[in-house]
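FYI - complex with iron/sulfur cluster, inputs then prediction.
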Amino acid sequence: MPILPEPLQDRQGRTFPYLRLSVTDLCNFSCQYCLPDGCTETSHKTAIGLDEIRRIVTAFAILGTNKVRISGGEPSLRFDFMDILQTVRNVPGIDTVAVTTNGYKLDKRVGNWLSAGMTHLNVSIDSLEPAMFQRITGHNRLDEILRGIDHAFAMGLPKVKVNTVLLKGMNDKELDRFLGWIKDQPVTVRMIELMETSDSIDFFNRHHLSGQVIRQQLADRGWTQSIRADNAGPAQEFWHPDYQGQIGLIMPYSKDFCADCNRLRVNSQGELQLCLFAEQGHNLRHLLQSDDQLPLLIHRIQELLNLKDDKHFLDYGLTGSTRNLSIIGG
Ligand code: SAM
Ligand code: SF4
């Protein structure tokens, strides 16, 4: 039997069971904090193909990764999205195939995604108020997305996560609306502090709000912070006995945010990104061209991990080379 390499571990002792894979940088929404003028990228045709995806995921699985999140841009815009789900699900060692989506046509599509192998669903919903949803995303599609979530539950998905970017002056008065929505359904709403990127400095300065404000509002309403599991991601989770759903707070500007980092990213051009805010990606694409290259690919990923910093430098205003998160998948 071949000897498997040790699971990935960096200089700080962090392990990486979780890969975020962006499969396109195209998007059909124009979220104000991400792509306010819509998508102008033209690199979709050069995005990694199915075989390249299979090879990346296989290498990571051999290095101890069991969870893959498929993101974008909007990943469901890929014509071969179903094949991507199936391919990732079939890689030995991968037990979790999560999708992060803007929910476009979710009501019509989620059933097929589940059949193709998706095990977890994150939907981005920045407002439960249709006019505000449209103002933020450029689309009047809230109803379709909410129906899609109902449909996912009806198809047997036990829970759904919703990503909500906290935006001062836009959705910051909506906590009670979100709480009402999750009273009787197992949705975790993860409120994410707006992160500064080089494309969005003005927007960031106008709309960034600390998650501490929500933390206090939750405490005032009797919500309690859950005890963190060892493998927990960056979200602080809160629960309340009268609610089926939960609230998560993701506060990248808080101290020690990076201490529990458990994820690596590969973007749609096949570049390994060691941190969401890294200054550069590391090209792996030349090592994705044949199955015979697998040992070299594994070795290169191990080697590159030595370059991972212990933390991001967002608090110094250093946002890295990523102009907006559609390029790398959030
Ligand atoms: N298009 C998909 C979507 O919107 O869910 C997947 C890609 S999107 C880049 C992934 C996540 O990143 C979304 O939940 C989005 O709200 C979040 N995001 C994008 N830009 C952000 C920013 N500047 N700060 C915080 N979150 C951001
Ligand atoms: Fe598109 Fe997602 Fe960026 Fe919104 S956050 S513009 S849906 S990639």
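The chain has a mean pLDDT of 91. Residues 50-62 form the longest helix (13 residues).
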